[in-house]
Write a structure and sequence with these properties.
Blueprint: H1 11-20, E1 37-44, E2 49-51, H2 53-66, E3 67-80, E4 83-94, E5 100-110, E6 116-123, H3 125-130, H4 136-148
Parallel strand pairs: 1-6
Antiparallel strand pairs: 1-2, 3-4, 4-5, 5-6
């Protein structure tokens, strides 16, 4: 499939593509979905901001290399006009830690060509990871309540 032929047409197609990214071996592969991203993709999350398809692909490769296992489950998804919203649960096992579940949501924006031109992921990385460290998770949550309300 040529890159200019790879467009997001509907929510069911998107969910099928996204779900295929996370195989049964726990190592994700974005190669099939990258053609659906625009060359000028803007990706943002709580850790980084990445501009351009090449930088986005490098980011996905770093995430794969850092984790021993990585799985994602789409909990719910909706599409309206040129926006896709989805809630997800990501289970990640870093090389020297225990398995952690990170709960998040993503907003993807499609351009006039049907390509993903922006993706914003929302999640509490540290809170979800710290919750899995015995004793520390409770201290972290107590600190967060005291300082932030």
């Amino acid at each position: 499939m040529r890159n200019d032929e790879a467009i997001i047409e509907n929510l069911q197609q998107f969910i099928a593509l996204w779900s295929k990214t996370y195989d049964t071996e726990g190592k994700p592969d974005w190669s099939h979905i990258l053609p659906y991203y625009d060359e000028d993709i803007l990706f943002q999350d709580s850790v980084q901001e990445v501009h351009g398809l090449e930088a986005f692909q490098e980011m996905t490769e770093r995430l794969t290399a850092r984790s021993s296992e990585l799985e994602m489950k789409i909990v719910s998804a909706a599409m309206a006009n040129n926006t896709i919203l989805m809630d997800w649960e990501m289970t990640i096992l870093f090389r020297k830690t225990r398995r952690s579940v990170i709960y998040g949501a993503s907003r993807l924006t499609l351009n006039e060509k049907g390509k993903i031109c922006a993706q914003r992921d929302y999640y509490d990385l540290w809170g979800d990871i710290f919750d899995n460290i015995p004793g520390f998770g409770k201290l972290y949550r107590k600190f967060m309540r005291k300082v932030f309300g």
